[in-house]
Amino acid sequence: MSARPRAVVLLSGGLDSATAAAIARSEGFDLYALTIEYGQRHSVEIECARAVARALGAVRHVELRVDLAVFGGSALTDCIDVPKDRDLGSAEIPATYVPARNTVFLSLAMAWAEAARAQDIYIGVNALDYSGYPDCRPEFIEAFERLAALATKAGVEGARLRIHAPLIRMTKAEIIRRGLELKVDYGLTRSCYDPDRAGRPCGHCDSCLLRAKGFAEAGVKDPAF
User: Fold this and answer.
1) Phi and psi of 87, rounded to 5°?
2) Residue 17 CB-half CA count within 13 A
3) Sheet with 60-65, side-by-side order of all strands
4) How far apart are CA 219 and CA 224, in angstroms?
5) The domain 6-218 belongs to what CATH superfamily?
6) In whole angstroms, what is the distance from residue 109 CA to residue 118 CA?
7) Number of H helices and number of E strands within the chain?
8) Mean pLDDT per segment of 10 residues, for the chain of length 225 residues?
9) pTM for this entry
10) Domain ranges of the chain
């Protein structure tokens, strides 16, 4: 059995979560990757998450279905158009926000972490180059960590659960540069909110625009294209 500590890593198959997972590995953790199939329209990311988990040597990769499409209310889970060519500087929360998604994801990661005797969770949220989602902010991550201390047996007994959001104050270009330092294969990742049936990115949604901006500012070509 490995003597390395364990970390549950939320792995979507996108650029940010792959980088967060690579950072966790570089910080000495065995990776327990958790991918949530939440009823999103872009299932290509699930396949990418499998590839990333293999490439990073995850000890275990769990794929869990929690169908948030039953509730709807988002362009990613409902019959709502994905916004295209939006002003990324807008303060408006876009239609691609999925109600309570990161709260649900972190709750599931917390459950697995406690069962697996892991004290660390990694999530690839970002509060700079992002679409303005309220559950990507530092205040949310800090609040969830406080909740974990109250809501778990481990927390009550003094085994503090740490929520790591290593990308939260980084630009997309900084994220990409850090990932490249850690040998992340970004060709395995996809980030589009509205890919076609072949999995090709639309090039116009917020996620595509942010990814393109990041690679341009990092001065490197996106290997996914």
Assistant:
1) -70, 110
2) 30
3) 60-65, 30-37, 6-10, 120-122, 162-164
4) 15
5) HUPs (3.40.50.620)
6) 10
7) 7, 5
8) 89 97 98 96 89 98 96 94 88 92 98 96 90 92 96 91 97 97 97 88 93 96 91
9) 0.95
10) 6-218
